[in-house]
Design a protein that fits this description.
Blueprint (H helix, E strand, L loop, with lengths): L2 E5 L4 H8 L6 E5 L14 E3 L6 H4 L11 E3 L17 E3 L6 H16 L2 H7 L17 E5 L3 H10 L6 E6 L9 E2 L3 H5 L4 E4 L13 H6 L5 E4 L8 H9 L4 E4 L19 E3 L10 H18 L6 E3 L1
Parallel strand pairs: 1-2, 1-3, 3-4, 4-5, 6-7, 6-9, 7-8, 9-10, 10-11, 11-12
Antiparallel strand pairs: 5-13
Helix pairs in contact: 3-5
Length: 309
């Protein structure tokens, strides 16, 4: 029996060029932003467009009576959870974004520490203004949300001669040592640079609030490459305004950040527009994952990267 899938490509030629021929027993409809295919009641496996919110794509999910699995192209998946029915599998793109996100996280730290953002602002005026920056070398680093991307960040820090790397996750582990989230404040108090790379869940929303920011040493740098709501924005604004800490943010709350928001112009803050996975390393990795998932789906094998079912 033929299984119906939806793929976010312009047409069959574009899909084949990216992921190769479809497995036997699979029929595909191709779609982009806008009108959905007519096979709403028949689709069993849906690949969501990259960086797309669940709506308007899933506004007709009640009509998708055959839908059994949704494949995301992002590591984050929290915004899709409210739309799932019991027994419907949701898979994310774990592993696909490790390289690009880890690169950006380290770059965000370097931009702030070495004052590259300030030099860039001087360029339109042709102003040659020397400033003494800081190095990642000899810094105490903390990675909060130590999973695949956290490990990728640590690998990239190896060449920067940091003084130490501590790790925090939901629960403690060994080899390498990972502290439980209950020890977060103690670990924050010993960190010069903090990388946030935790998923957004009910437990991590607001994880970094006023008390956690107060625990960080004066002059510490917070790098958020996870989700904006992991950090209490008002508390962050207060901490940065006081000059106690600095922040490099690839994600914000709200997002997009309104043009008049104080974070745009505060000294010590650098903002990028949620581009952690937006690099050419993404494409070959996501295409390999989609090819594997379609083969598994066609064969009736368990999908990988299932985060909810």
């Amino acid at each position: 029996m033929t299984k119906r899938v939806w793929l976010p490509f312009e047409d069959e030629a574009a899909a084949v060029a990216a992921i190769g021929p479809l497995p036997d027993g699979v029929a595909a409809d191709y779609y982009r932003a806008g009108e959905l295919p007519s096979t709403v009641a028949e689709v069993e496996f849906l690949v969501a467009p990259y960086m797309a919110p669940p709506l308007p794509l899933l506004e007709r999910i009640a009509e998708m009576t055959s839908l059994r699995a949704i494949q995301l192209q992002s590591a984050g998946y929290d915004n899709y959870l409210p739309f799932l029915r019991p027994g419907m599998a949701l898979s994310n793109a774990a592993g696909v974004h490790d390289t690009a996100t880890a690169e950006l996280a380290v770059a965000l730290a370097l931009v702030n520490l070495r004052k590259l953002d300030r030099f860039a602002r001087n360029m339109p005026e042709g102003r040659w203004q020397l400033e003494v920056g800081e190095s990642l070398a000899d810094k105490r680093v903390l990675i909060v949300g130590y999973g695949r991307i956290g490990a990728a960040i640590e690998r990239r820090l190896a060449g920067f001669e940091v003084a130490s790397v501590a790790r925090v996750a939901r629960s403690s582990r060994t080899e390498p040592e990972v502290h439980p989230v209950g020890e977060l404040r103690q670990q924050l108090a010993q960190a010069d640079v903090v990388f946030l790379i935790t998923p957004l869940t009910p437990q991590t929303e607001g994880l970094i609030g006023a008390a956690e920011l107060a625990a960080m040493p004066d002059g510490a740098l917070l790098v958020n490459a996870s989700r904006g709501k992991v950090v209490d924005t008002e508390a962050l604004v207060d901490a940065v305004r006081d000059g106690r800490i600095r922040a490099s943010l690839d994600v914000t709350d709200p997002e997009p950040l309104p043009p008049d928001h104080p974070l745009w112009t505060m000294p010590g803050v650098f903002v990028s527009p949620h581009v952690g996975g937006q690099a050419d390393a993404f494409h070959p990795r996501i295409h390999r994952l989609l090819k594997e998932q379609l083969a598994r789906f066609a064969a009736g094998d368990p999908l990988v990267n299932v985060v909810s079912e």
